[in-house]
Design a protein that fits this description.
Blueprint lengths: L9 E4 L2 E4 L4 E4 L15 E2 L2 E2 L1 H14 L3 E5 L12 H16 L5 E5 L3 H10 L3 E4 L8 H8 L3 E4 L17 H18 L7 E4 L8 H9 L1 H5 L6 E2 L19 H13 L4 E4 L2 H15 L3
Parallel strand pairs: 3-6, 3-12, 6-7, 7-8, 8-9, 9-10, 11-12
Antiparallel strand pairs: 1-2, 4-5
Helix pairs in contact: 1-2, 2-3, 3-4, 8-9
């Protein structure tokens, strides 16, 4: 039986406090060369463009991002797996350059045990794993660094996940998977009050699955852990309106607000300022007695 906690948790992220009693924004500066959202502009000639990365991070933090999510492996549909060394080469310079410069939690978007260990050593404050710490050694590495972890549901791997995904009951199956991973984390020594969960919008799910999940997101919230939702620029938008990823701002904002209204407390987005403003309106409304 999973031990639940307050879904509006306050997390200790390597000395930085992340208050999830109200919706917060996680910004995504992409350091992969094949990012679906920005074409990999922060990574060129086999190295991270540190000046551009810092400018982008500075803009996101100034706009209100509480978390910066740094990942070196593209997990877009159809993406190929990268080697652990490639991921280290992309992620560690980014973490090192950002850790002491910005007052925001640095999240490691990784499934790799070595990236978890080395990233934490350099100042990362959170682990965000699309594979929910299922890779060999990842669970032990996450327990050892004693950072908050985000466990995401994904059916299959990025290169195969969108090949005819099927569920009997998409929300029930996601919730059951997350319960099992929570239990494994607690058994491995990860405190329950360090766990965040993510139902994995777009990861092994059709547009119908995604919208069903959004409509019933409260069932995920009812597991008793803070919920992260990543809906920004996702292909589910293109199933409703034909827009390229860079033209999905209005739809992304709508989805972020809907997710927050249904209980999500951390929104992973590309357009930070606009999302912060949209969520501020929701918070203002909810604060009226």
């Amino acid at each position: 039986m999973s031990t639940s906690i307050n879904t509006g948790a306050v997390l200790d992220c390597a000395g930085r406090v992340l208050d999830l009693s109200y919706p917060r924004v996680m910004g995504v500066p992409n350091v992969t060369p094949d990012s679906f959202s920005d074409g990999g502009i922060l990574f060129a000639n086999n190295r991270v463009n540190e000046d551009l990365l810092c400018r982008q991070a500075e803009g996101m933090v100034a706009a209100g991002a509480a978390v910066l999510d740094i990942g070196g492996e593209s997990t877009r549909p159809g993406a190929a797996v990268v080697s652990e060394q490639e991921e280290l080469d992309r992620v560690l310079p980014a973490v090192e350059v950002l850790a002491d410069r910005f007052d925001a939690v640095l999240s490691l978007d990784t499934s790799s045990p070595q990236v978890i260990a080395e990233g934490a050593r350099l100042g990362a404050g959170m682990i965000n794993d699309v594979r929910a710490l299922t890779r060999p050694g990842a669970l032990a590495a996450a327990a050892a660094v004693e950072l908050p972890v985000c466990l995401m549901h994904m059916a299959g791997e990025p290169d195969t996940m969108q090949r005819n995904p099927q569920y009997r009951d998409v929300v029930s199956e996601i919730c059951e998977f997350l319960r099992q991973r929570i239990d494994r984390c607690v058994e491995a020594g990860i405190a329950a009050d360090r766990i965040v969960i993510d139902p994995g919008f777009g990861f092994g799910k059709t547009a119908t699955h995604n919208f069903t999940l959004l409509k019933q997101l409260q069932r995920v919230v009812d597991l008793g852990y803070p919920v992260l939702a990543g809906l920004s620029r996702k292909s589910m938008i293109a199933h409703v309106i034909q827009r390229d990823p860079t033209e999905r701002l209005a739809a992304s904002l709508s989805l972020a607000v809907l997710a927050a209204m249904n209980g999500a407390r951390l929104l992973r987005v590309h357009d930070v300022r606009e999302t912060v403003d949209a969520l501020a309106m929701l918070t203002a409304m909810e604060n009226i007695n």
